[in-house]
Specification:
The protein is α/β, with parallel strands linked by helices. It is built from twelve helices and seven strands. A seven-stranded parallel sheet has the order 3-2-4-1-5-6-7, with helices on both faces. The longest helix has 29 residues. About 40% of the residues are buried.
């Protein structure tokens, strides 16, 4: 219903906005192939094993059916009897009537309302919308791989600014310590941040570093609470969402005004050389 948009999505929002329990929403983003899904799977298994029910939204740029790594892992997790603790949904970027920027936060709230905590949103950190969605989480994790190029790419995509935690995944490959060092010196230069993002090494395929990442996630969540930044971020998120809804409603209204009898006669009048578009627009908006 949320993906379809329109009145049904509106009905869902009316429920979830009240029923939300304030789950820790974690955005995981980074270049394609960085290992986000593998890392998410490793985290999910770890959370599930310690009895924390986790909801995952995998935002897939192409198709809702190619969640490859993570869907394979879901099968394995269900074999281990962990499927009650993990809910995974992949959402396609294309084909959202209301737009993904509506659907993703709303879907996250559905998971929150259903009792999942944490809620993970995985997006490819390339498009602006994808980066925005990840940045709207409570805690944003940026995944890079060994190699200086990757850190530079991340910086170019605007991921440095949004990262609360950096993960250097594929740390089994050459160059991991250098990438950690490079990131740390980049971070040291952007000095006045109240929260200095930790840089964590992982080998997602083996689950290595998962515990450290979980600890960093908890630490950031606690910091959000203690510093008051969490409240500020949630307020900003509410503002962005409200702004988007107001803009969408006005666009709908504009669409409706630009059709029908009044519209036709305004066009008629202007075509025959009377009046001006500004006055006609005022008239249309007045009714
Ligand atoms: N060597 C090594 N390979 C890894 C590691 N983590 C993931 N991979 C592999 O990297 C490839 C991509 O992993 P995914 O988890 O699908 O990457 P992703 O970031 O989700 O990719 P997209 O969803 O396409 O953006 C897979 O073949 C993984 O098995 C790691 O720590 N070390
Ligand atoms: Mg993936």
């Amino acid at each position: 219903m949320v993906e379809r948009g329109g009145p049904s999505a509106r009905a869902v929002a009316a429920v979830t906005y009240r029923a939300g329990r304030g789950a820790h929403v974690i955005g995981i983003t980074g270049a394609s192939g960085a290992g986000k899904s593998t890392l998410t799977s490793a985290l999910c298994r770890s959370w599930a094993e310690s009895g924390e029910p986790v909801g995952v939204l995998a935002i897939d740029p192409s198709s809702p059916f190619s969640g490859g790594a993570i869907l394979g892992d879901r099968v394995r997790m269900s074999e281990q009897g962990l499927d009650n603790e993990v809910f995974i949904r992949s959402m396609a970027t294309r084909g959202h009537l209301g737009g993904l920027s509506f659907a993703a936060p709303e879907a996250a709230r559905v998971l929150d309302s259903a009792g999942f905590d944490p809620v993970v949103i995985e997006t490819v950190g390339v498009g602006q919308i994808e980066v925005e969605i990840a940045a709207r989480a409570d805690t944003t994790v940026v995944v890079v791989n060994p190699g200086w190029g990757d850190a530079v790419q991340a910086a170019k995509a605007g991921l440095m600014e949004i990262a609360d935690i950096f993960v250097v995944n594929k740390a089994d490959r050459e160059g991991a310590p250098e990438t950690v060092r490079d990131l740390e010196s980049l971070l040291a230069m952007s000095g006045d941040r109240r929260w200095r993002p930790p840089v964590i090494r992982t080998v997602a395929t083996d689950g290595l570093g998962t515990d450290e990442l979980r600890a960093a996630l908890v630490e950031h969540r606690d910091w959000l609470g203690l510093s008051g930044v969490g409240v500020i971020r949630r307020r900003q998120r509410v503002e962005e969402e409200l702004r988007a809804v107001v803009a969408a409603r006005l666009a709908e209204r504009a669409e409706a005004l630009c059709a029908g009898e009044d519209w036709d006669s305004a066009v008629e009048e202007l075509t025959s050389g009377h009046g001006d578009p500004w006055s006609s627009a005022d008239d249309l908006l007045r009714d």
